[in-house]
Amino acid sequence: MVELLEDLVVERKTDELVQAQRRTEEAITSIQRTLARPSPQPPLAAEVERGVSFAAIVARQAEAAPPRQQLVVTTREGATPRTADEEKAAIKAVVKPVDGGWQVAGMKRRGPNSVLIETSSAAQASSIAQCPNLAGADLVVRPLGKLRPRIIVYGVPRALTEGEVLAAIKGQNFPNINEERFRESVKLVFKTGPRDRDMVNWVLEVTPEMRDIIKAQVRLYIEWNSCRVDDHLTVTRCYKCQALGHV
């Protein structure tokens, strides 16, 4: 009886070992087949091998992405002037994105007296532009057009207000240009320079025609100063990777 039980145990263990060995062999065979099968090449690598430049691939992907719409919000002419921060506060006080279902990608200052709102689509931009609450708060919403050239004027007295700077540029340099046309052609954007000096540099946003006129003059006369002018060009550079085009 004991011998019979021992034989049964041995036979059972033998069957288990055989099954385990079979499973191991099947697993090894499956792995070998997987390794032997050629892996699909990533689409990007395949295009690069065909001679397509990486820049062309990135440009194509950028074109395929849905463009975002940008709106500029300013205070209505004739109303009490506001700074960009005050306009942002006014926008948030009178509207809530959840009420209109707005998909706002971002809102930031655009110069000293305007705010830039970025939305996900043209329909979203239209909804924001037609919002009665914004109009009721003396805010004007318009699409962001093409960026105008910018001119930097060096050595402007810090004590002058924005209105005085514009009046000096108009009266001392372009007396024959219509006031309305001048206001449409020249806008102060921001000023730069060390805070502990009496002179600052003003950046102007101008029309292409006005840019050519100012550049041809080389200098602008403002009060008792002859101020050098030049194109204002900025290049964004990442602080981390030092690459251009982002921060």
Summarize the entry for a quick read:
This protein is α+β, with helices and mostly antiparallel strands. Helix content is 45%, strand content 23%.
Describe the overall structure.
Among the domains are: about 70-145, 2-Layer Sandwich (Alpha-Beta Plaits); about 150-230, Alpha-Beta Plaits, CATH 3.30.70. The mean pLDDT is about 80. By secondary structure, it is α+β, with helices and mostly antiparallel strands. The chain starts with a helix and ends in a 16-residue tail after the last strand. It has helices at about 1-35, 45-50, 55-65, 85-95, 95-100, 120-130, 130-135, 160-175, 180-185, 210-215; strands at about 70-75, 105-110, 115-120, 140-145, 150-155, 185-190, 200-205, 220, 225-230. The chain is built from ten helices and nine strands. The chain is elongated and about 110 Å long. It is about 45% helix and about 25% strand. The longest helix has about 35 residues, at about 1-35. It has a five-stranded antiparallel beta sheet with strand order 6-7-5-9-8.
Please specify the SSE layout and strand pairing.
Blueprint: H1 2-36, H2 43-49, H3 54-64, E1 69-75, H4 84-94, H5 97-100, E2 104-109, E3 114-119, H6 122-129, H7 132-136, E4 139-143, E5 150-157, H8 162-173, H9 179-185, E6 186-192, E7 199-206, H10 208-217, E8 219-222, E9 225-231
Antiparallel strand pairs: 1-3, 1-4, 2-3, 5-7, 5-9, 6-7, 8-9
